[in-house]
Design a protein that fits this description.
The complex is a heterodimer of chains A (84) and B (228).
Chain A: H1 2-22, H2 26-46, H3 50-83
Helix pairs in contact in A: 1-2, 2-3
Chain B: H1 2-23, H2 33-46, H3 51-59, H4 61-81, H5 97-119, H6 128-145, H7 153-177, H8 201-225
Classes of the chains: A mainly alpha (84), B mainly alpha (228).
């Protein structure tokens, strides 16, 4: 049962990784890369490492996503300025 | 096409490198000498219910000091790279009513949860790093909901520097009054499992939490402010 959950989560992580690489919409790609960390933190909890899981959930899927979103915002703004 | 071919080869080679992890390494049936020592004597020696914390803060405290230093250098580097003149934009979209009301309701709860995580670092999972990040996320929520709100740069700098300096001072106090650098036993160990226990571990973890939180808020503040 636990092994099945881990395998399913691993496959979902791979799918999210491919989405992060190949999605044309950058916003969706950032969300997909945040989802990878979220599933990794679930796997850490199953493997009895709650400390690592908290770090992964807070930093990997929370803070990194926000930093990427800020960066995307800045890049888009600069591109708009160039087109004007 | 060629680029994709090379990256495929690279991925296959990487898989070959990690293959022994699956085929060769068997799960250990018993702990090694170092980990057995930590697991058996850790709770009695340091009085921390969470064994991970006693390893991170005390036994391997020097590594944690190194990690905090790496984070500090990262913040300094980002501050250096983004040190362009900050022009506050005139026209910025205001936050929606839902975000504003949600923030005013959630902000105290999130900050309280972050403080809980690092104050209870020696009892429950989590600690300074996790609590600091949770607090930083609360501040980011505040920054998103109120566009004119920017944390004061000086306060952040002072908070970060003071908590970093006190962290090292705690380490040196351990060196003088107890067994070695970052030894937590110069404060009374207290009753096992209570919040005021495990010597200096709660103090050190609170300092780490404040430092990490201030640093991350500083990074996000610089990123959000940078314009033009």
């Amino acid at each position: 049962m636990i092994l099945t959950i881990i395998i399913v989560l691993g496959i979902l992580m791979l799918a999210a990784a491919f989405m992060a690489l190949y999605l044309k919409d950058l916003l969706s790609a950032i969300i997909a890369s945040g989802a990878i960390s979220l599933m990794a933190s679930v796997i850490y909890i199953i493997l009895a490492a709650p400390d690592v899981a908290m770090t992964e959930a807070a930093i990997g899927s929370g803070l990194t996503t926000i930093v990427f979103l800020y960066a995307l915002h800045l890049v888009r703004k600069k591109q708009e300025d160039k087109h004007d | 096409m060629i680029k994709r071919f090379f990256s495929l080869i690279f991925v296959v080679l990487l898989a070959l490198v990690f293959l022994p992890l699956v085929t060769e390494i068997k799960p250990l049936s018993e702990l090694g000498m170092t980990s057995a020592k930590y697991a058996e004597d850790g709770a009695a020696e340091l009085g921390a219910a969470n064994l991970v914390t006693s390893v991170v803060v005390t036994y391997r405290g020097l590594d944690t000091l190194g990690e905090v230093t790496v984070l500090f250098i990262t913040t300094a580097g980002i501050g250096f790279m983004l040190r362009r003149k900050t022009i506050l934009p005139e026209k910025k979209r205001r936050a929606s009513e839902i975000l504003k009301s949600g923030t005013s309701f959630l902000l105290p709860l999130i900050i309280l949860f972050g403080v809980y995580i690092f104050v209870h670092g020696h009892l429950t999972p989590g600690g300074g790093f996790q609590g600091g990040v949770v607090i930083a996320s609360a501040i980011v929520l505040l920054m998103l909901s109120d566009i004119n709100m920017h944390p004061d740069h000086n306060i952040l700098n002072w908070l970060e520097s003071l908590s970093g300096a006190f962290y090292v001072i705690m380490g040196i106090l351990g060196l003088i009054l107890a067994g070695g650098f970052l030894d937590n036993r110069f404060l009374p160990l207290g009753e096992f499992g209570k919040i005021f226990s495990a010597g200096a571990i709660p103090v050190i973890y609170s300092l780490i939490g404040l430092k990490v939180g201030a640093e991350l808020v500083g990074i996000l503040n610089k990123l959000g402010r940078e314009d033009k």
